[in-house]
Design brief:
By secondary structure, the protein is mostly helical. Helices cover 51% and strands 0% of the residues. It is built from eight helices and no strands. The chain has helices at residues 4-11, 28-35, 38-52, 74-87, 93-97, 105-121, 140-143, 160-195. α1 (4-11) runs parallel beside α6 (105-121) and α3 runs parallel beside α6 (105-121).
Length: 209
């Protein structure tokens, strides 16, 4: 379990601005601090938008904190609890008894596994069985592209085998573009951190000649 969260976030191609601090020890105490921050709330939002996609876009507002939020709120924790139980079917007595206690290391582990299953297994592995998956030995290259029947190629070469290879190449290309977009978004986020609170030095200004 050592450093499991950074490894999972690497598999999920999480933007750097949302990741757990790799320099910090990956202990339950440190992860508990991370999951009670706005960064983790944005991380959950990213997983639902990009990988899990269990609810319609227009119904995801409850999982989104305001852009200027500095802390998570009780309403967000309640939405997170409902997301775990009603949408992802992660039933825990402690969550049902007190939704505000739903943000736990276990729930973080579970939601990461759910996202990885959706990203790499393409419905081959159902969520009740992903607890037994050895993520360290999962062959991403041969498994993540195992099902191309639902992916539109957009043209036909006249050969079923060639069409399948072309579909694989198109999927890899689109995935690479998504990763590039994530990197660009992370850079934009970092730039906005420097420009969002710009200050003017009035002593440098002059009136008239």
């Amino acid at each position: 379990m050592d450093h499991w969260l950074p490894k999972m976030q690497q598999l999920l191609h999480i933007p750097i601005s949302l990741q757990y601090d790799h320099a910090s020890p990956c202990t339950s105490k440190e992860i508990t601090i991370y999951i009670n921050t706005v960064k983790y709330a944005r991380f959950v939002e990213f997983l639902e938008d990009r990988h899990i996609r269990a609810i319609p876009i227009e119904q995801r507002e409850t999982l989104r904190l305001p852009k200027d939020a500095s802390n998570t709120t009780p309403s967000w924790k309640a939405a997170y609890s409902n997301y775990l139980t009603s949408v992802l079917h992660h039933h825990k007595p402690s969550i049902a008894n007190d939704p505000l206690q739903s943000v736990t290391v276990e729930s973080c582990w579970w939601i990461c596994q759910k996202a990885i299953a959706e990203l790499y297994f393409d419905d081959v592995v159902e969520s009740p069985t992903i607890q037994g998956v050895d993520l360290q030995h999962y062959d991403k290259e041969t498994s993540c592209l195992s099902n191309t029947s639902r992916f539109p190629l957009g043209f036909s070469t006249g050969s079923e085998n060639v069409d399948q290879y072309a579909t694989h190449l198109k999927m890899v290309y689109i995935q690479d573009m998504r990763h590039l977009q994530d990197d660009i978004n992370a850079i934009v986020d970092r730039c906005q951190d420097f420009t969002a609170e710009a200050k003017t030095d009035q002593k440098l200004g002059k009136v008239g000649r």
